C-alpha cells in the first residue's frame, strides 16, 4: 500500500480560545488523514470533532517535510 504525506492546517477550540495547528501525517489517502487528525486531537486534547476545523489539506513531497518524526519514518 502506497502512503503519502499530507500537511493539514486548521483550528480547534480549547476552552475559550481557538488554537491554530499545522500537522504532517503519513496516510494512504485524504479521508484517512482527516480521520487521523480527528482521532489524534480527540485523544490528546479531549475535544469533539465539531471543535476541530480543518481549513487546508495538501499532499507534500518528502523534501517539504518539516516534522522530524515524519522525516525519520522516511
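^ Assign residues to that structure.
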Amino acid at each position: 500500500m502506497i502512503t503519502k504525506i499530507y500537511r493539514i492546517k486548521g483550528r480547534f477550540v480549547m476552552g475559550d480560545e481557538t488554537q491554530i495547528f499545522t500537522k504532517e501525517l503519513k496516510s494512504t489517502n485524504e479521508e484517512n488523514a482527516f480521520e487521523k487528525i480527528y482521532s489524534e486531537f480527540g485523544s490528546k486534547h479531549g475535544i469533539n470533532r465539531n471543535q476541530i476545523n480543518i481549513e487546508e489539506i495538501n499532499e507534500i513531497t518528502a523534501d517539504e517535510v518539516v516534522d522530524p518524526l515524519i522525516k525519520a519514518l522516511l
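Residues 30-45 form the longest helix (16 residues).
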